[in-house]
Amino acid sequence: QYSPDSVAGADGHTDPTEITFPGCACRRSSCVAPQCPCLLRGHGPRPGEQPFSGPVFECNSLCECGERCQNRLVQRGLGLSLQVFRTRCKGWGVRALQPIPGGSFVCEYAGEVLGPAEARRRAKARSPREPNYILALREHLHDGRVMETFVDPTRVGNVGRFLNHSCEPNLFMVPVRVDSMVPKLALFAAADIAAGEELTYDYSGRFNNLPEASRERKPLEEENGLRKPCYCGSRSCASFLPWDSSLFSTP
C-alpha cells in the first residue's frame, strides 16, 4: 500500500500523525530565528546546506506562519521526478529523471513506525532470502540516552523503500521532526545528481559498515549467513550490506 507519509504500525506503539508540539505565533510569511520557537528547537533543513548533527525541527500545522514559510520543506513531500526501475543485479532501484542540485530534499523513507519488540519480531520472522526493509534509526542524545525509531515499509510505504544501498552514496538521511518527536526520515542529495543517475544512500549511516571495520573484525559465522552481499560496485565497497544484529538478539 502506497503512503507518502509514515503511519502507525500494527502494534500501535507509536502514532506519527499525532501532533504534540505547540505551534509558533509568527505572523509573517517565513519564520526567522531567534523569534520563532520552532527554530529555537533546532535549525530547519534548507536547500544547499550540508548535513549536521544538531536536531532539525520544522513548523507544523498549528503554527500561524504561512504555508510558504522556509521552515516547511520535508512536510511538503516529494517534488521531484523519480522513476522506479529494474537494476542489473540489485532488484528494484530508483533514479532521477531530472538534475538534482546538491543539498536538495529528495524524498522520505516512509512506512509503518514500530516499537522495538514488533521490529525485532518481524526481523526474526523473515527468512534470510526475503528482503528486509526495516530501518533502525538511533539518535544519541546529549545526556547519553539513545532514542530509537523503527520504520518498516514492507506493507505500507513510499518510493523510499526501493532505494538501494551504496558504500559511496549520493543521498544522506536526516531525521526531521514536524508534529512530534517521531521523526520523518528525510533523504537529501549529498552532491549534484545528474538525470538518469541511480539514487542511493548508506544503510548504515557510515558508522557500522566501513571496509576497514569489515577487514579487522569479520562477522561471526552465523551472522555471516544472514548478511547479504553488496553489489554497489564502489571502490570502497564493504562487500556486505549493513546488518543490525541487535534486531535478531534477545533484548
Automatic annotation (TrEMBL):
PROSITE patterns referenced in this protein's UniProt entry, alphabetically: POST_SET, PRE_SET, SET
Signal peptide limits: none
Protein name per its UniProtKB record: SETMR methyltransferase
Intracellular or extracellular location(s): Chromosome
Subcellular location, principal: nucleus
Domain Pre-SET, residue spans: 22-77
Keyword Nuclease recorded: no
Organism: Bombycilla garrulus (Bohemian waxwing)
Keywords: Chromatin regulator, Chromosome, Metal-binding, Methyltransferase, S-adenosyl-L-methionine, Transferase, Zinc
Database matches in SUPFAM superfamilies: SET domain
Listed GO CC annotations: chromosome; nucleus
Keyword DNA-binding part of the UniProt annotation: no
Protein origin, superkingdom: Eukaryota
Pfam families (UniProt xref): SET
Residue stretches making up the Post-SET domain: 226-242
Alphabetized GO MF terms: histone methyltransferase activity; zinc ion binding
GO biological process, one term: methylation
SET domain: residues covered: 80-204
